[in-house]
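sanity check this fold:
=====
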Amino acid sequence: MGVLDGYRVVDLSIAMAGPLAAMRLGDLGADVVKVEPVTGEWQRHAPAGGATGNRVNASFLSLNRNKRSLAVNLKSDEGREVVHRLAATADVFLQNYRPGVAERLGMDYDTISAVNPGIVYVSMSGYGESGPYTSRPGQDLLLQAMSGAMLSTGRDGDPPAPAGTYAVDAITAYSAFEGALAALLHRERTGEGQRVSVNMLDAAIAVQMQELSVFTVGGVPQRRGREPHGHTYIRAPYGVFATKDGYLALGMPRLDTLAVALDLPELAAMDGDDDGHTRRDEITALVAARLPGRTTAEWLEICARHDLWAGPVYGYADLVADPQVKHNGSFVTYDHPTEGTVTTPGFPYGLSAAPPSVRRGAPLVGEHTRELMDELGYPAGRTAELVAKGVLTCED
């Protein structure tokens, strides 16, 4: 029997981060009901690396085990009623729609919690549910670029390189998984449901606890050396490209649209799903040759106008100063008893009823040994004996 046996999860998410989070709950025994459109979830029709499978492609298969599928049209009153009834039987409700979509579909927290006041409602987004970047596409490559992490690898002077995995998607998935479990524990103790908010930007920042703390606390700048410090499954163009004054992250644009935006008619005749893989080097070379003609800001404006997925490549200094990061409160500042005032990455999720907080900084070796031994019922003399024998260490 799984640890979550008897719990039900309603999963309205698409792509990777949401489905992976829901799958992890299913792996622990939860009954996960995947609510998808009648034509199937997006990932069914966008096989990673062209691995189409027989009826289920590899990418969808990899993210959706331990689930049952409910195919329903949420744009109809009847479809919404079905899902509302399902939600009334659930423990967790998870969605990763763009901001505003859940409200339009009647799948927002206020609506679902009215149906089921005890629900743990997990809302996932790219950059947060408010602030200057809510309309930006929350895509893995773009968040990798913005997180500052790309400039921690590679050789000075070489283009920043993405990770060889969908790192931010995975990190966000585990943040949602963790937040859902925390909220379920809170409900077990209090009977109270709540909203859990997770966004990819904060998750990508929080996972760089060591690197960003070296920058923010230690004051060590982010430098790449002369030698490298050390996706083939995504259709071209996909990566970071040099511009006139920096770099641009570009993720899976439609080739016909990109042909217009970049004035590259050669791309218009190509098929994204086929040529995007088989002629990857040719497409990449065409785009790489074009982008140095304009600045990053100019290309970002052009890409936004054509609804292409593009974003800037940040270093840590850019990241810390970014308005969305400041709006989100992605970093926390507090006083440490020996290190003074420090600023470090905060939390990858928010809990509306029981928000995370910094209650104490990193402890010194054995700082709380005596306190804990007291709580466990050990006499002071026995504690002292164990310290003398080297079994315990106390900071005093």
